[in-house]
Q: What sequence folds into this?
């Protein structure tokens, strides 16, 4: 079983749709959680950190459930520019290494 | 904001040659740099963690004699793929962390194609 698992998709949604991605992790010692976005043939870029209380950044909402070891990302009012691969990242402590999920591919269509 | 650069962005080489990839943190001192490899449609796989002035820590299955890492200064780490073979063709990405800050900044990556 992979340490970080994501539904690979692809998710194909129309503009304006709401889409949710899920991620589960197996290491209960994980302390930090992130969502990264990676465009085709580019490096990953930090989208947002995920906090225990849940957090929102514009159209993006991240949730963490430590008991279930589950992270989610909700995108509201999808834009064409949201098309990318979204990577769930889990880190064991501040100085620990980051483990990446395989990513979920989103395509937003006109 | 913090920026990490990589050079070269793309390299094509013959089998058996060695390739050096540089990773620089441009406006901050990175005590820790990470080297990842990403194959098509797969996620980033950590190859090694590099701390300035000390030997790199390699992940299981990564050959340290094949992937030489040098972190000579707080702003520069290099990865040398020695005696490259076609199966080494991949997207190599470095990442730098500012102290123990949670933020990890990625370089733009280097596409290696070994013929």
A:
């Amino acid at each position: 079983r992979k340490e970080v698992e994501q539904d690979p998709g692809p998710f194909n949604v129309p503009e304006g749709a709401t889409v949710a991605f899920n991620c589960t992790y197996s290491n209960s010692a994980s302390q930090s959680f992130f969502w990264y976005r990676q465009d085709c043939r580019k490096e990953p870029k930090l989208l947002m950190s995920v906090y225990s209380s849940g957090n929102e950044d514009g159209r993006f909402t991240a949730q963490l459930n430590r008991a279930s070891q589950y992270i989610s990302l909700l995108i509201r009012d999808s834009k064409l520019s949201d098309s990318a691969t979204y990577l769930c990242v889990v880190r064991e402590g501040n100085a620990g290494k980051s483990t990446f999920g395989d990513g979920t591919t989103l395509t937003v269509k006109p | 904001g913090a920026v990490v650069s990589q050079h070269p962005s793309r390299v094509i080489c013959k089998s058996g040659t060695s390739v050096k990839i540089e990773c620089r943190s441009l406006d901050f001192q990175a005590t820790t740099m990470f080297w990842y490899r990403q194959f098509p449609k797969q996620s980033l796989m950590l190859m090694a963690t590099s701390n300035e002035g000390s030997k790199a820590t390699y992940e299981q299955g990564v050959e340290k004699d094949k992937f030489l890492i040098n972190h000579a200064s707080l702003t520069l780490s290099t990865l040398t793929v020695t005696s490259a073979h076609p199966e080494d063709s991949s997207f190599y990405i470095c990442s730098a962390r500012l102290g123990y800050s949670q933020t990890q900044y990625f370089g733009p990556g280097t596409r290696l194609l070994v013929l």
